[in-house]
Amino acid sequence: MAYWLNAAIAVIGATMVQAIRSALGILSGVSHRLRGSPDPELSQILSRMAALAAFVPPPAEPPAPPALPALAPPSDASQHFPPEPHPIQQYRAIWLSDIHLGTAGCQADYLLDFLKHNESERLYLVGDIIDGWQLRRGWYWPQSHNDVVQKLLRKARKGTEVIYVPGNHDEVARQFDGLAFGDITVREEAVHVTATGKRLWVVHGDLFDGVVQHARWLAYLGDSLYTVILAMNRHFNRVRARLGFPYWSLSQYLKHQVKNAVNYISSFEHAMVDEARRRGCDGVVCGHIHKAEIRDVNGQLYCNDGDWVESLSALVETMEGELKIVYWTMLLDPPQAPPRKRRRAAAITG
């Protein structure tokens, strides 16, 4: 203990002497640059500092301490204080879909960050929350995916009305229509009434996808090819994140360049709004095609909340009843590195 105390005193003394000598050099330079006769007070201060510096010899170098992990000094003064917390946005309703937990393409960290900074009275999970297709091929379930499930359950316990509308990738949950699991209610479909009185039919949308319904083998094949593209996309965005760029979807870009894909999306939108009109609703909220959008289609409101694989988007309703698409391509609170990596990084920096 005495060894470390002496070493600390030596370091502090060296720092003080260096500061005095640096100040002396700066003030001497200022004095020489002044035109005319020097200021008497400044000359007196310089002479006193010179005398003080002369009587304070530079301390001897302290002996090398035993090997201990060095701590990196803070790069700026702001690191002495905790960062300012980001405000939590309050909404009347939030719609999320196509999270695809259980796949490597799921952007769970971005979704956790979104759920942390956004609250709502109602939260709709509009299908493909858990990807049963991929989990049947091979088990993949990292801690971040478990954290998403726990976060959703916690919101339900704290008073958010959570409604789960299954899709084609988690269709096994449709058999539990009307039941509640951990305060989360399962519904095959739902109707949401906005603050302005609009009735919106909430459904995943796979039942209006001809490929899913009539060529299931083609849907599975397309899903496998899609998984390969998402793997490329994941490595691509890892490099972008290190360079400070926001998330960008390679798979979405490729999909929207194909004319047949654009025609398919247009047919899907018309089929959805026609069914919403037949049910006496003013519009529809769906997912499934991974393309977030709000627009008028044949006099009906078409809303797609996007996904958390490509677009990282959600549909929200403000307290005034306005519907908006929110994109969450930048993390407000990036996840911290594991403790072992943090200690190793600190030692290297020191």
TrEMBL record:
SUPFAM superfamilies: Metallo-dependent phosphatases. It holds the Pfam family Metallophos. Residues 63-83 are annotated as: Disordered. GO terms for cellular component: membrane. Residues 63-72 have a biased composition (Pro residues). GO terms for molecular function: metal ion binding; UDP-2,3-diacylglucosamine hydrolase activity. Signal peptide: none annotated. InterPro entries: Calcineurin-like_PHP, LpxH-like, Metallo-depent_PP-like. Keywords: Cell inner membrane, Cell membrane, Manganese, Membrane, Metal-binding. Residues 94-291 form the Calcineurin-like phosphoesterase domain. PANTHER family: BLL8164 PROTEIN (PTHR34990:SF2), UDP-2,3-DIACYLGLUCOSAMINE HYDROLASE-RELATED (PTHR34990). This is Calcineurin-like phosphoesterase domain-containing protein. It comes from Cupriavidus yeoncheonensis.
